[in-house]
Backbone:
């Protein structure tokens, strides 16, 4: 794709003014890093507060009395039971149980407010429209920008401008005026830190971003650090760790499948791929041969970064999987990775080798997150 | 000035043709970002020009380090192995990668001088 074919976010001029290095991402020209650099940006977010432009992501509303029940028919998730003001993680599945996209949604009372991945948004909206467009209104919100303010001092910075946001707890949301700009704010994010995501009208996004950057805690953070932060936090990246060939159970996202949708639940099944997903849920250890692979966290025992698509072998040299994301974690100063491995090799502490440039690098299956989450739960 | 530059963004200082110093350029380290790992060749190994002799990795990317000329590795920078950030902070001096005994010093003529390389990076 040529640069001229790339879309830009409402903050494009600000990114350039701040000296960002711009790269193509999800069809947009996006800042991968600012002059401070990935490492400094990552560490700043973990210690203070970082501002991310994530306006490439898709925002949409589902409206109508049947919206929750309709949306539930696309995901193995309890939508109907989600209270007003609450946010939840969801997974759009195909008819084989493969993941079309992962997303966040909030019950705002008058609608379901949904945020999907930028690279998937066109297909997601078409899918949602095709499957449930008869049951509710599907309203894309291309006029909304999205900013994320993440880090232990995010609440200090944001509540200076909108005191009420301090009352939010993790995975809740509300409408707030921030420096006179009407926004919808959720206390959530993609870094493992406390923080907020802020949906703001595109026309006012730059003014909001400048106001946030004027707070002493806040620095701009690029997509490079966003990736290293989310990987340390054990959070999946769609396209790397999740795709249409992986199911929620293989991906270790069983926590996202509430009991009400599982076998024996009040609204058991009734989502695309339910037969496959429920059968895998009944075989979590893989002993019945239904669940054949699992996503795991890996740490390298040597200081060699292990990157996506690296082959994994048992110590005896048998191929048992592949890395889906990997880098040197700036906060823990150790190479970390996510990988899919054969189900019998997924237990914590399992030793295996990554084959890097033809040489084995010792790794061990490790618990995620690699860095403790610091969400604010009240 | 005997420093030459390759299209793959290595520099080579062949003041001593038995121990020419090779590293990555300012442009290369800037494009990579914070360097966190280097894989250096074995001393005594011989390479042809264009062979991959090492690897340099930042948090976000890995890049091969190419041999700019034919030769034998006579020394590697152990200090760089211990502190890969030297490739960012001092790429043209203490952040050197390895030293090579040239098999064919005439190959240096095929590399770029500083002005040509500077133009090359601007047009890349």
Residues:
């Amino acid at each position: 794709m040529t640069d001229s074919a790339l879309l830009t976010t409402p903050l494009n001029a600000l990114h350039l003014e701040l000296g960002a290095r711009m790269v193509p991402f999800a069809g947009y020209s996006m800042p991968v890093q600012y002059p401070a650099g990935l490492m400094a940006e990552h560490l700043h977010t973990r210690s203070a507060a970082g501002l991310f432009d994530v306006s490439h992501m898709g925002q949409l509303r589902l409206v109508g009395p049947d919206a929750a029940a309709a949306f539930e028919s696309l995901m193995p998730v309890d939508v109907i039971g989600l209270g007003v003001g609450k946010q939840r993680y969801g997974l759009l599945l195909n008819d084989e149980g493969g993941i079309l996209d992962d997303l966040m949604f909030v019950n705002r009372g008058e609608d379901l407010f949904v945020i999907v991945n930028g690279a998937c948004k066109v297909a997601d909206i078409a899918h949602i429209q095709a499957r449930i467009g008869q049951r509710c209104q599907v309203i894309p919100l291309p006029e909304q920008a999205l900013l994320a303010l993440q880090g232990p001092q995010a609440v200090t910075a944001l509540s200076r401008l909108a005191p009420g946001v301090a009352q939010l707890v993790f995975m809740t949301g509300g409408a707030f005026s921030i420096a006179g700009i009407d926004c919808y704010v959720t206390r959530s994010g993609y870094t493992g830190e406390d923080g907020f995501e802020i949906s703001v009208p595109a026309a006012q996004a730059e003014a909001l971003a400048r106001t946030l950057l004027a707070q002493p805690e806040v620095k701009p953070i690029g997509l490079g650090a966003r990736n290293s932060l989310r990987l340390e936090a054990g959070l999946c990246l769609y396209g790397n760790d999740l795709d249409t060939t992986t199911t929620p159970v293989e991906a270790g996202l069983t926590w996202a499948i509430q009991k009400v949708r599982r076998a024996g639940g009040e609204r058991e099944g009734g989502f695309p791929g339910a037969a496959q997903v429920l059968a895998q849920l009944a075989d979590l250890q893989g002993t019945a041969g239904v669940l054949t692979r699992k996503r795991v966290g890996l740490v390298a025992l040597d200081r060699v970064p292990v990157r996506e698509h690296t082959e994994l072998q048992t110590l005896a040299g048998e191929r048992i999987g592949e890395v889906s994301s990997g880098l040197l974690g700036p906060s823990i100063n150790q190479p970390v990775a996510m990988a899919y491995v054969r189900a019998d090799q997924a237990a914590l502490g399992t030793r295996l080798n990554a084959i890097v440039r033809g040489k084995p690098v010792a790794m061990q299956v490790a618990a995620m997150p690699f860095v403790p989450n610091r969400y604010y739960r009240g | 000035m005997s420093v030459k530059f390759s299209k793959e963004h290595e520099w080579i200082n062949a003041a001593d043709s038995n121990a020419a110093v090779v590293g990555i350029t300012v442009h290369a380290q800037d494009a990579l970002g914070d360097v966190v790992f280097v894989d250096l060749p074995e001393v005594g190994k011989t390479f042809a020009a264009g062979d991959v002799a090492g690897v340099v990795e930042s948090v976000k990317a890995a890049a091969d380090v190419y041999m700019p000329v034919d030769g034998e590795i006579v020394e590697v920078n152990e200090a760089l192995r211990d502190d890969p950030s030297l490739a960012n902070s001092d790429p043209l001096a203490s952040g050197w990668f390895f030293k090579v005994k040239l098999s064919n010093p005439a190959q240096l003529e095929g590399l770029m001088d500083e002005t040509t390389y500077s133009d090359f990076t601007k047009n890349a």
User: Anything to note?
Assistant: Chain B touches chain A through eleven residues (CB under 8 Å). The longest strand of chain B covers residues 52-58. Chain B has one domain: 3-116. The CA atoms of residues 37 and 82 of chain B lie 9 Å apart.
